[in-house]
Amino acid sequence: MRALIISDSHGWSKELQIVLDRHRNEVDALFHCGDSELTADDPVINGVKVVSGNCDFGTDFPDDVIEQIKGVTIYVTHGHLYNVKMTHVPLSYRAEEKQAQIACFGHSHVATTFQENGVVYINPGSIRLPREHKDGTYCICEYSDSTIEVTFYNYEGKKVTELSRQFTKE
C-alpha cells in the first residue's frame, strides 16, 4: 500500500495540484490532513480524502477519516482537537481506539514520523508554511509485508533524506 500524505497547504491551490498530479498515478490513496482552506467541491482535491483543520471553516470536511486500504487501517485527523502541538498521547489513544496501523496528522507544520506501540505516526509538515525545516514538505508512506517506509519530499519533489525513515512492523 502506498499513500501520499500532505497537510497545511493553507489556500495553495495551484501548488497543491502540482504535488498531487506528480504522484497521483503511483499511490493507492491521497490524504490531506487539514488546513487546505479549500471547499469540498474544489476540483484540486477531487479524489483526495480531506479532513477539517482549525483554519477550515464550515462543514465541508469531517474531523477525521478512517480508511482501510489493501488491509491497512489509516487514521487521519488534523490534530488540533488532540492538542498535538503539546503531546501525542490523546492522538495515540484515538489511533489505538480505531485500531490504526498508521495515524496521520498535521497542525504543527513540523514534519516528523515515529513509531509507538505498533502504530506509525506521520505529520507530513506543511508545503506552504513549514516549521523546523526550511523547505515545505509532504510524504509518501509505503506499507509492505515487513516494513513501513515514510519518504519525505520538498515541494519540488526532491527527497528529504534527513526526515525520511523506515520502520519494522511490530
CATH architecture: 4-Layer Sandwich
**Element order, helices and strands?**
EHEEEEHEEEEEE
Quick one: how many beta strands? 11
Spatial separation of the terminal alpha carbons: 17 Å
Strand order, sheet with most strands: 3-2-1-9-10-11
Question: CATH superfamily, please?
Answer: Metallo-dependent phosphatases
CATH fold annotation: Purple Acid Phosphatase, chain A, domain 2
* Mean pLDDT metric: 96
**Uncertain ranges:** none
- What summary fits the major beta sheet? 6 strands, mixed
Radius of gyration: 14 Å
Number of helices: 2
Strand content: 25-35%
What would you call the structural class?
Answer: mainly beta
Q: For this structure, what is the CATH class?
A: Alpha Beta
Share in helix? 10-25%
Apparent shape: globular
Return the domain count: 1
Domain Calcineurin-like phosphoesterase: 1-145
Organism: Halalkalibacter alkalisediminis
Protein name: Phosphoesterase
Family: Belongs to the metallophosphoesterase superfamily. YfcE family.
